[in-house]
Amino acid sequence: MNIDLNLGELAKPVDTLIREVLKGVSALSEGTLRRWNEKRDLIHAINMCKIIEKAHAKASQAKSVSLGVEGGFLLNFLDKCKTVSDADMQDLWASILAKESDIPGSFSQLTINSLENFRKQDAEWFISFCSFVCEINSETIPLIGNVSHEVYTKNGISIEVLEHLCALNVIEIDNSFIGSRGRTKPLTPYLNLGESISIFYFDKKLDYVNEGKNKTSMNLGNITFTSIGKELLSICDYKQVDGFIEYLKREWRWSTMFGDRWRVEGNKIIRT
C-alpha cells in the first residue's frame, strides 16, 4: 500500500500546530495533565511535525510535494523518529524522508531501524568518517590509513571511533586493521592496475601511473561501508578535509605496496 501524503498541503498548518501545541505544553499543570503518557504522546507529535516540516523544505519540489511512500515504511519511520527532539538529528531524519520522497526505495527498513539507535555524537563521527571518502573506478570508498596521523585525529577519527561505528553497523573493519577485535573476513578488494587510475576527492584528482613493466595492485584499505552506511552516506553533508590529498600523495600506503619504487610528480603517483 502506498500513502500519498501531500506535504504541500500538510505543511501549511504545521507552524500553527507546533505553536499551539507548545503553548499548550507550557500551560499544562499537574491538575490538567496527570498521566505521563499523555504528555509523552504530545511531545512525540511535536517531534514528528517538525521532522515532516523540515522534510517538506528539503524535498526537491518543496512547494507542492506528493510523497508516495510505502505505507509500512512511513509508519515505521514515524514510529522511530518520534522521540528525536534534537534539531540537528531532526534535520538528518528529515533528509531521509525528503530523499525517500524524491527517490522511493532509497532507504531500507533496516536502515531506519538502525538509525533509531543513533545519537548526535554518533552522527557527527559518521559524518567525519565520510569526509575521507574518495571515488575510485566509480566506487565510493573510504580511504583510512594510519589513524594516528593528524589528518585523521584532528578530524575526530580514532580506532575507538571506528570500532564504535562498526558496532553501529555502518562500517565494517578488516581484522588486519585492528587485530583480533575486528571482523575475520577480508573486506576491501585490490585494484589490479595497468597503466593508470584516478582517485577523485571532491574537486581534486590524484592519478596513479604505472611506468613499470608489470601490472600491480592497490590496497583500497581495510574499512568499507555496510549497506546501511552506504544509504546514510547519500544524505550526509560531509566536508573536504584540508591536507588529505597531500596525505594521500605522500604517505598513504605507497611504500608498503611499492617499496621505494614510486615517486610524486605534481598530482601523480608514479610507480617505476
As laid out across the biggest beta sheet, the strand order is: 4-3-7-8-12-11
The residue-averaged pLDDT reads 77
* Helix-strand category: alpha+beta
Q: Looking at the structure, what is the overall shape?
A: elongated
Distance N terminus to C terminus?
Answer: 60 Å
Number of domains: 2
**Sheet with the most strands?**
6 strands, mixed
Number of helices: 13
Radius of gyration: 23 Å
Order of helices and strands: EHHHEHHHHEEHHEHEEEEEHHHEE
Strand proportion, as a percent range, falls in 15-25%
Considering DSSP H and I runs of 4 or more, what fraction of the residues is helical? 40-55%
Which spans of ≥5 residues are poorly predicted at pLDDT below 50?
1-22, 24-33, 62-67, 179-189
Strand runs, count: 12
Which helices and strands appear, and what pairs or packs with what?
Elements: E1 2-6, H1 7-10, H2 14-27, H3 36-58, E2 66-70, H4 71-81, H5 87-102, H6 109-115, H7 120-130, E3 133-136, E4 139-142, H8 150-153, H9 159-167, E5 171-173, H10 175-178, E6 190-193, E7 196-201, E8 204-210, E9 216-219, E10 223-225, H11 227-233, H12 244-250, H13 254-258, E11 262-265, E12 268-271
Parallel strand pairs: 8-12
Antiparallel strand pairs: 1-2, 3-4, 3-7, 5-10, 6-9, 7-8, 11-12
Helix pairs in contact: 2-3, 3-5, 4-6, 7-9
